[in-house]
Amino acid sequence: MEILKNRNFTRLFSASLTSQMGTILGNMAFVFYLLDRFSDQPGYATAAELMSALPSVFVFFIVGVVADRFDRAKIAENSDWIRTGLTLFILGALALDLLALVFVLLFLRSAVSKFFVPAQLSLVQGILGEKQLMQAAGLNQMVSGVFIVFGMGLGAAAYLYLGIVWAIVIDGISMIASALLIRSCRIPLDVRLPNGRSEWRSLGLKPVMADFTVGMKYILRYRLLLSIMLGYLVFGLINGTLAVIPMFTLKYKLVPDQYEQYMALFAIFLGVGFFLGSIVGSWALQKLKPHLVINAGLLLISLLAVVFAMIADIWTYLIGVTLAGMCIAPVNVALGGWLPQIVDADKMGRVAAWLEPIMMLAHSIALGLVLAFYPQVISLESAYFGLAAITFILFVYYSWSLTKWAPETAAAQKEVEL
């Protein structure tokens, strides 16, 4: 693939992959640890997921401003170094059996990680041409399937065979590797600092809110972009539910005595689905408009969610997981490649900074609802039916909005007035 000849992209991509794989491995191992230690209290596992999602709600107004005002490469690198330090503190808290402190540290580490994505995404946008952005999105999703397989699968294996401490050590090592890869990049200054140099002391409340408002106005005045961002709110609800419901399905319904092993298989089947779906999505996007690929994927996902509610056999469930991955991946490829094409480079940090909080706010709401109502009020089956309903609603909305505003992409971007 042509973009892999770009050394800066290859290193940034490898850094993101390494960091994400380590995080998934460590987080999954910790969830298994909680489910084993507090097997009759699934709320602990949900709370752990909530500690990863909730910080976006508190830092979203500043991460995009930082990515657009300061050196994007240093922001991404320092995010990894700070998270490495917090990982060491997590190990100490576990050794002292201070579970409450572990949750606080997970919250802080997640908050720091929110600065990584806008900075890294803005760097990638700056070093690739417009035609390469969709290729990069396809590659991201293709390899996402691989690190889901290895990350979640190794997370289960690491906990079972190495224990929680070594799983978290591997997580920390992955962040060190990511930081070193970013440091080795040679990215032009105008990509790292598209708006010129700024002093950290200028990062007061007034300029932060001014920049934050610029990003918000940019989104609100651009109908296609606003429509896409509203969709990310629904994706957050879906992701929040899927963060824990499959695990609960295995532990409390399908394979109660072997859920750790089958969770690893779940990751493999999902990863294969993502890998195949990324190939299909990349091919489809050469023939079809992005909004057609997105709508087809959403409709199929809503239908599969209904099927999941009625499945009582583990292997049928795993086959369905593969099909779900094949449907989700093209949607992600289309959105991931489309967004950088329609956003100005000097606004990318502020726009990208909205993605995470929008999704994570909805993600946190979904986890909070699961924590509050499962299993006393809602069942696994009703959770899947709920997923089917909100996905279908998004399909109906996107069928109207994206079809209507997609032809306006080029013109609308030029007409935005700040």
Task: Give a structural overview.
The protein has helices at residues 7-37, 43-53, 56-69, 72-95, 99-113, 116-127, 130-161, 164-183, 189-192, 205-220, 223-242, 245-254, 259-287, 290-310, 314-342, 348-373, 380-405, 409-415. 50% of the residues are buried. Residues 409-418 have low confidence and may be disordered. Helix content is 83%, strand content 0%. The protein starts with 6 loop residues before the first helix and ends with a helix. Helix 4 (72-95) packs antiparallel against helix 8 and helix 13 crosses helix 15. By secondary structure, the chain is mainly alpha-helical. It has 18 helices and no strands.
Q: What best-fitting shape do the alpha-carbon axes yield? A: globular
Q: Oligomeric state of the chains?
A: single chain
Estimate percent helicity. over 70%
Name the structural class.
Answer: mainly alpha
Q: What's the structural blueprint in terms of helices and strands?
A:
Layout: H1 7-37, H2 43-53, H3 56-69, H4 72-95, H5 99-113, H6 116-127, H7 130-161, H8 164-183, H9 189-192, H10 205-220, H11 223-242, H12 245-254, H13 259-287, H14 290-310, H15 314-342, H16 348-373, H17 380-405, H18 409-415
What's this model, at a glance?
The chain is an all-alpha fold and 418 residues long. It is 83% helix and 0% strand. The protein is globular, with a radius of gyration of 21 Å.
Structural features:
single chain, disordered C terminus, about 85% helix, about 0% strand, mainly alpha, about 425 residues
